Amino acid sequence: MTATPDTKTPARKKLYVKTYGCQMNVYDSERMTETLAARGYDAVDTPETADLVLLNTCHIREKAAEKVYSDLGRLRKLEAERGTPMQVGVAGCVAQAEGEEIVRRMPQVDLVVGPQAYHRLPAMLDALDSGAGAQVVTDFPVNDKFADLPKTRKASAPTAFLSVQEGCDKFCAFCVVPYTRGAEYSRPAADLLAEAHRLVDSGAREITLLGQNVNAYHGEGPQDVWSLARLVREMAEIDGLARIRYTTSHPNDMSDDLIAAHGEIDALMPFLHLPVQSGSDRILKAMNRKHTADGYRRLIDRIRVARPDIAMSGDFIVGFPGETDSDFKDTLSLIRDIAYAQAFSFKYSPRPGTPAAGSEQIAEEVKAERLARVQAALAESQAAFQQGCVGETMPVLLDRPGKFDGQMMGRSPYLQNVHLTVDPARRGEIVPVTITEAHRNSLGGVLAGTHAP
Ligand code: SAH
Ligand code: SF4
Ligand code: F3S
């Protein structure tokens, strides 16, 4: 007997999502994929055969934003070469910042959807199917988004992201985030606990709570408003959830209860990404950061009293308008004082619509030279931290296959990649590993107890 095609079930289509930018975009890409799965799309790893391509974009620096246009050019070529139609959508922060302009510049784009509007993708696709022109949705109905997304999210790995807070009210003078992500919004605690339970039930052992200013979290709880510390405490009670992290934090929102939580909650990992941007008070003021370099130093002292082994991470911007050699030296001395385990550093990139964009700019060569010096200082402190791990035995979450057969990659408590020889069937386990090698971006180790003397 031959199977007759079921006319009621249309063929599944293929979706390729490319993610740029921060972890919030990684989270959003997962949610978009999940939303579109319900509308007949299966995710694929490359654009070649995709019916729909979504670029989930980042607007934070000029280079990030420009990349989208070169990728769109490449997709147009691919579509012409293969000779079958490809629908193309631009999501994320460039979509929010540029809106209609994207369609004007790149008429091949069918969908433009902002980071607060992607729950509307199925309706936008319906409109396209019915012959309407390009769909652009960039409004900010934050509450609707989470309420309208499917409640079916499953963990795809032992580590998972969970967005708990979005947007930013801080308006640092260099930053587009308050414009692309809108005002601060905290999701209700009950929704987050439910999503965390679903992730753990489907295999997550570690959850990273995400927000542009995650430590400003103040979500509706059952009786009162919950802080991030309260949320972390409640999540730590979930059976099977071994590790909790949160990112990114602002120094001014590191409350006493959150600092205390680092000393009291075993599941809260000893790693903190706490951007400072500059070590000069003059520049911090011009950046509208509302804290000083010494205030930041004292804050980290207090965090280290609560959790002595905490590994610090940060972000730095060099070449902000007005930055002198002496301001820059203050940044280098802050880097030395904190002894970062890792950090990111960037050349200042003037962004349209932000207050600092109109100021007189620092010469490109000066920016490049300062960036090289900051990166050298950070590399030195990162190498010292990596080297200090050799000989230590630490719990490692085996989260993904390694490069070679019989090898796995895992995560240390300090967010380092660790590779070791271990049965890949143990993915998801947390095992004690003795560190034997330190590299720039990873550690090598052996299962504790199996180390040759
Ligand atoms: N919400 C987070 C992250 C913001 S974006 C925070 O407050 O720290 C991540 C990093 O990008 C920032 O910390 C900053 O170091 C960098 N960044 C933001 N805008 C930038 C710009 N215009 N030029 C260069 N770097 C920038
Ligand atoms: Fe941008 Fe500052 Fe808000 Fe961070 S705190 S997202 S750097 S405006
Ligand atoms: Fe980029 Fe938007 Fe994240 S601008 S850093 S993707 S919030």
Description:
By secondary structure, this protein is α/β, with parallel strands linked by helices. The chain folds into 3 domains: 125 residues, Rossmann fold (3-Layer(aba) Sandwich), CATH 3.40.50; 244 residues, pyruvate-formate lyase- activating enzyme, CATH 3.80.30; 55 residues, Nucleic acid-binding proteins (OB fold (Dihydrolipoamide Acetyltransferase, E2P)), CATH 2.40.50. The protein is 35% helix and 23% strand. The protein has 14 helices and 21 strands. The chain has a 6-stranded parallel beta sheet with strand order 2-1-3-4-5-6, sandwiched between helices. Strands 17-18-19-21-20 form a 5-stranded mixed beta barrel. The longest helix has 25 residues. The protein is globular. The mean pLDDT is 94. FE3-S4 cluster (F3S) binds next to helix 1, helix 3 and helix 7.
Keywords:
alpha/beta; Rossmann fold; 35% helix; 453 residues; binds S-adenosyl-L-homocysteine; six-stranded parallel β-sheet; binds FE3-S4 cluster; globular; OB fold (Dihydrolipoamide Acetyltransferase, E2P); 14 helices; 3 domains; pyruvate-formate lyase- activating enzyme; five-stranded mixed beta barrel; binds iron/sulfur cluster; single chain
